[in-house]
Amino acid sequence: LRSDLDLERSAQKKSESSAEIVSSFQEPLAYSAYDLQSRLFKILRKRFLEAYLIDGNQREKSYAINNTAFSIAQYFGWSELIRKEIRFLDQGAAEKSQELNTLLNKVTRLWATDKYGSEFRVFAGEQRAIGERMIQEDSHKTGCLGYADFLEAIGNDSIPLVSEICTDVEQLAGNSPASNKRIVELQHMLVDLVNFCDPDHIRFTGRLDKV
């Protein structure tokens, strides 16, 4: 009986520990989703690419491309980190985490679907490959590359597929961004993800607008 109780306590402690880890990753995931939806909103409604990529100087053009690619890669990185933790949670004890996983899967499928053609399409395996390279681990903490490290990494061509994403950003600037249904739907889903992670609007005050 004591052995059974010890096993039960150990399993409960492990589940609680994993849930705490997921919770600690959920906040940076929410911030990465917020940053990405904000960038997509600016592209779709605020003429971000026209102002900085088409009409900007060389520094502004590089920033518009590279920072947009970083926003995408950063989201893939935090998404990959939290997925790895969710896999080890007890399903019955982690209903909220399962809801989060469902939302993440919806975003993954939207990136990967052929429904909107090949523009800004990133297959599920490619999303994970980018996410894995964005993860930064040491003995003290686990997180994602910051922007400076990201720029160095793409300069060394050590993050796969980023050049293709940069090309898509450039091509998007030459078209009407609002006609790209994939990024419109992505912005909507990312708003839903942010609202799920921050239902009381503590981290992100005010209502997020969908395009």
Offer a few descriptive terms.
two-stranded antiparallel ribbon; globular; 211 residues; mainly alpha; 70% helix
Structure description:
- The protein is mainly α.
- It is built from eight helices and two strands.
- The chain has helices at 2-45, 48-54, 58-86, 95-112, 124-134, 147-155, 162-173, 181-197; strands at residues 135-137, 142-144.
- Strands 1-2 form a two-stranded antiparallel ribbon.
- Helix 3 (58-86) crosses helix 7.
- It is globular and about 70 Å long.
Quick synopsis:
By secondary structure, this protein is an all-alpha fold.
Question: Secondary-structure blueprint of this entry?
Answer:
Blueprint: H1 2-45, H2 48-54, H3 58-86, H4 95-112, H5 124-134, E1 135-137, E2 142-144, H6 147-155, H7 162-173, H8 181-197
Antiparallel strand pairs: 1-2
What distance separates the N and C termini? 58 Å
Low-confidence stretches: none
Principal-axes geometry comes out as globular
The helix content is 55-70%
Mean pLDDT equals: 87
Q: What class, by secondary structure content?
A: mainly alpha
Specify the biggest β-sheet. Answer: 2 strands, antiparallel
Order of strands in the sheet with most strands: 1-2
Query: Nearest-angstrom radius of gyration?
Result: 19 Å
The count of strands amounts to 2
The helix-strand sequence is: HHHHHEEHHH
DSSP helical segment count: 8
Q: Percent of residues in beta strands?
A: under 5%
